[in-house]
Amino acid sequence: MLVAAIVSLTVLGTVLGLLLGLAARYLRVEGNPIIAEIEQMLPGSQCGQCGYPGCTGAAQALADGSAPVNLCPPGGVALVQALADKLGVEADLSGVEDKGPQVAEVKEEICIGCTRCFKVCPTDAIMGAAQQIHVVFREACTACSKCVDVCPTEALSLQDVPVTLQSWYWNKPKEATA
Amino acid sequence: MKLFDRFFSGMRGGVHPEGRKDLSAARGIRVPPLPKKLFVPLQQHIGAPASPIVCVGERVLKGQLIAVAQGNVSAPVHAPTSGIIIALGDHVAPHPSGLPVPTFTLACDGLEEWAALQACDDPFALSAEDIAARVAAAGIVGLGGATFPSALKLNLSRGVQTLIINGGECEPYLTCDDRIMRERATAIVEGISLIAQAVAAKEVIVGIEDNKQEAIEAMRGAARASSMKVVAMPSMYPMGSEKQIIQVLTGQEIPAGGRPADIGVLVHNVATAFAVHQAIRFGRPLISRIVTVSGGAIKSPCNVEVLVGTPVQELIDFASGYSQAAARMVLGGPMMGQHISNTGIPVVKGSSGILALTADEIGHDAASPCIRCSTCVRACPVGLLPLEMAAHIRGSDLAGAVDLGLKDCIACGSCSYVCPAHIPLVHYFNYAKGDLAAQERSKLKQEATKKLAEARGERIARIERERAEMMAKRKAARAAKEAAAKAAAEAEAV
């Protein structure tokens, strides 16, 4: 009786162990799938303001839990909330000030045409050449502020995106009574 | 009463606001004197703003093209009268935001000198494409208030079963469509026939609310020779809304998120039909429209045919000014119109009325908490749950509101009108729709910038690779040269 129990359990253990071993080999997941999903949510301009090498690095750190969800300044409050929902953590919104959408703007009077901003822009949103006044394409600018950091004459600054008839919408009603 | 309405109107929900159309319904269309200056915005339609083609200082003729359409969804703008363009700059828009928009300032010279027009003696010989092209060139947009470019609608709806002409005018106070039908029925009927020809519609129905008996008779008289049907509809708000008029006249409902063309229907406003007639028969672009100036604070309410760009103040003066202080100025109807604070704004293609309302008429009370009486649910013509949607939006759960059908809300204002707690329900919905659209825009931008960043990464990698290859090639060439020199030196030494 004792032998039967030992034999059956040993066989069971061996077979299941083998199955697990095979499963681990054939059904292996390449990387953490959540990293790719988080990377999709990030702005993808590889600006490096979070301190990680590009958005993939930031996504990895977020998935490990080693980075806070409010690490991405260009993403704003909307991204913090989305990341918190995704990772199931409490969002700490106190540190993030939502400045609303911004874009870089060149002050043409003091631009010296040094081409430094043109070289660092991660989305090719700046057009210019040596000794020429540079200009920012608003549609392509992610407000990562890399250009602001390298500008030697402070001609570049982040400005709020002007509200137009196309982008304006009603504010939220003040009386919270509905 | 509710059951009775439902049975006879064929419409779900709806409300019965006090009509107040008697203030101006008996006043025939008059033409106010030409203002000294007109302010013509480049954007008077849904879509991309028009692009200016005349310079400041240039003299333009009445009906001359001054800004061309940009892109697929857009409409051109024409000079409303002859005169000199004295500025092109920002002017307050006829829009609830009060933001400035690029606007032509035209100093009228009073000569009313027309540009050469492309008239057509036999419009019914024109092809469908030709009609749509002429409608597009005339800058015609939906005059019921939505201002969607009409030619685009014609092109998207070719081959529909039913053409519905909307003479509902369910908004209180407004009588501009009523007057145009009474006074210009023959031209409207010809315009309708042209639209029907452009889309090859098999059936044409003109729907008019039964509180406009004179208009119904005039239209029936003008349409006697044609096959179009003029149908009296019960007077109820929002009967003039596209989805509701289709439901009442055809018994079909547009699927959620769909367009009328999906069920083989095209809807145009009566004033649009008149503009189409003017554009095709006489080649006249859309430079004027009928506007109702009314409200308890207006001394003598009236209907006027005004040039696009006329400042609102001029029309108030034409209606003998105010009889008492106006508590609120509204552009459009009182249910869906826009509250304006500046009477310097111009009348544009989509302005149907200018209302100066007294404090009694607006009856503004502070909002109080929702008592969940569900009056708004019964009033909603689309069959939504306004109280639930507003509660979700208040809690910043926009996705929850979308699940409840926020995107099918037509912003008719019936729920806000009946709410006993005076909750600004439509304001919540407008905010939520705007916020969702903004999120959608930023998502599109993010996708685009991501692609740009990837393209830049690839380009930098390619440049690096090419540089490395070139260096390797040079190195190899130099090595070969050195080897050859060495070999030659050795040969010489030997």
The CATH homologous superfamily of the largest domain in chain B: NADH-ubiquinone oxidoreductase 51kDa subunit
Biggest β-sheet description of chain A: 2 strands, antiparallel
Number of helices of chain A: 6
- The total number of structural domains of chain B is 3
What does this molecule look like?
The complex is a heterodimer of chains A (178) and B (494). Chain A is mainly alpha-helical. Among the domains of chain A are: 33-87, 3-methyladenine DNA Glycosylase II, Chain A, domain 3 (Orthogonal Bundle); 102-160, Alpha-Beta Plaits, CATH 3.30.70. Chain A has helices spanning 2-26, 33-41, 54-64, 76-87, 116-120, 146-150, and strands at residues 102-106, 126-127, 135-136, 156-160. Chain A has a two-stranded antiparallel ribbon with strand order 1-4. In chain A, helix 2 (33-41) packs across helix 3 (54-64). The longest helix of chain A is centred in the first third of the chain and has 25 residues, at 2-26. Chain A is elongated and about 95 Å long. With 494 residues, chain B is an alpha/beta fold. Chain B has three domains: 1-26 and 124-283, 3-Layer(aba) Sandwich (Rossmann fold); 31-117 and 308-364, no CATH class; 375-435, no CATH class. Helix content of chain B is 37%, strand content 17%. Chain B has helices spanning 2-9, 128-137, 150-156, 176-183, 185-199, 213-222, 242-250, 270-281, 312-318, 359-362, 375-379, 386-394, 398-403, 414-418, 425-493, and strands at 29-30, 37-41, 51-52, 59-60, 65-68, 77-78, 83-92, 100-108, 162-167, 203-209, 229-233, 265-269, 288-294, 302-307, 328-331, 338-340, 353-357. In chain B, the strands form four sheets. In chain B, strands 1-14-13-17-15-16 form a six-stranded mixed β-sheet. A four-stranded antiparallel β-sheet of chain B has the order 2-8-7-4, with no helix packed on it. Chain B has a four-stranded parallel β-sheet with strand order 11-10-9-12, with helices on both faces. The longest helix of chain B has 69 residues, at 425-493. Chain B is globular, with a radius of gyration of 29 Å. Mean pLDDT of chain B is 92; it is low at 1-6. The interface between A and B is large, with 28 and 44 residues.
